Amino acid sequence: MPRRSGRVVSQPNRYLGLTETQVVIPDDGVEDPLSYKHAMNYIDQDQWVKAMDLEIESMDFNSVWELVDLPEGVKPIGCKWIYKRKRDSAGKCPKTPQEVKDMRRIPYASAVGSLMYVMLSTRPDICCAVGIVSRYQSNPGFDHWTTVKIILKYLRRMRDYMLVYKAKDLILTGYIDFNFQIDKDSRKSTTR
Question: Would you say which domain of life the source belongs to (predicted)?
């Protein structure tokens, strides 16, 4: 039988000032249904049925499964539907098809892609900002679009700023750790 220590383990003093906090995200009062029964009891049940029909059509079109007759003595695998409303960055559901259409018209993905190209080729200073706005490609809101416009304004304001070298006394020196070109016969690596 292993021996147990009688030492009392206590929380370090450095954690005494920390308190747990709870963040409550305000909701517009609309909860997502937990099951098919709940979805059919909601006011917008016709939209849930339409969404399920579209999902089944999509799975059929993409050949996700093939419908076959159930063999004798075999139980089918269950299928769980997950009902979720699409929400914007503020956590609100678009109320009308017009709101959804308005956000689709904004070229968010194209703008973020262009910013990534600029960041990788010539402007590493926008790396952090582009990294943050690229996280919201799947569900951008108007706040994200405003942030992308701020980055574009920054680039427009900073286009005349550059590094300037004096034309006189410019000596460019390069250093390497190894070189394959020194030994012309064997092309062995030589370090300096």
Answer: Eukaryota
Closest CA to 109 of 134, 146, 143, 129: 134
Are 116 and 130 a contacting pair, CB within 8 Å?
yes
Secondary structure element (H or E) that encloses residue 191, with its range: strand 190-191
Residue with tokens 């809101």: 141
- 30 and 84 Cβ atoms separated by less than 8 Å: no
Closest CA to 148 of 121, 116, 175: 116
Query: Which pTM does this prediction carry?
Result: 0.40
For 172-184, give one letter per residue: b (16+ CB within 10 A) or e: eeeeeeeeeeeee
Helix (H) or strand (E) holding 47: helix 45-61
Alpha helices in 66-188 (DSSP H): 97-105, 108-121, 127-133, 142-157
Map out the domains of the chain as residue ranges.
33-61+81-85, 106-157
pLDDT mean for each 10 residues of the chain (192 residues): 75 56 46 79 80 82 83 82 67 64 77 91 88 85 86 90 74 69 64 54
Angstrom distance (rounded) from CA 13 to CA 112: 46
